[in-house]
Amino acid sequence: MRPISRRYPDVCFRVLAAFPGTADGGIGLVEISGPDLPAVRDAVESSDVLRTVDVLHDGDGGTLVRFETSAPLLLRALRSARVPLELPFEVRDGVANWTLTAARDDLSRLGDELDARGVDYRLERVRDDAGRDPALLTERQHELLELAVERGYYDHPRGATLTELAAEAGVAKSTLSGLLQRAEGRVVKRHLRVP
Question: What is the mean pLDDT of each run of 10 residues along the chain (195 residues)?
């Protein structure tokens, strides 16, 4: 999908499922959204890297495709490094953005595996969540609060609007507002030690 996503940089390829299939292949389920969907679908169906392509849904909102690839380089690297693939993840303009949860040694081994396969990558951040209280926020609340902080939503003046955050998070504005409000309430109450 990466070469196709480079040809169509405004299209989002959201990988919903992926796993090593046969000994030399991998299987995936991807949701494609953006402009030029008929041309993108044709490019996916005629790709020489994909063995099979089944269009499961094709509508105004996007295209859902199940495919089998003969070159699952990223899946092989993850499997060799023993790092689980967290789904979904997006590919835009040839760049896959992953969030990985692994020990530092496993991440180092993954780097070695990607290097050995000639895969370009960039590690943007390593975070230690050992001190985070998992009972305080759900994973989704934590993810959305972190996005809001990173984009400057809590800065003065704001670096991003609620509408912009909702679009980036792929949720409705009202949904994001409710999730942030509940998360903010929990954080404030914990800070003030209010039950």
Answer: 87 89 79 91 88 88 89 80 87 86 84 86 66 69 89 90 92 89 84 70
Q: Of 35, 59, 41, 58, whose CA–CA distance to 1 is shortest?
A: 41
Chain-centroid distance of CA 195 in Å reads: 35
In the DSSP assignment, the letter for residue 84 is: P
Residue 17 phi, psi (nearest 5): -150, 145
- 121-142 b/e with 16+ CB inside 10 Å = b? eeeeeeeeeeeeeeeebeeebb
Residues 80, 113 contacting (CB under 8 angstroms): yes
Pairing state between β 12-20 and 89-92: antiparallel
Could you give the C-alpha distances from 112 to 68, 89, 120, 149, in angstroms and in order?
25, 22, 11, 32
pTM, rounded to two decimals: 0.61
3-state helix, strand, coil in the chain (%, to 5): 40, 20, 40
Place of tokens 């997006």: 90
Residues whose CB is less than 8 angstroms from the CB of residue 86 and which lie 6 or more positions away in sequence, other chains included: 98, 99, 100, 101
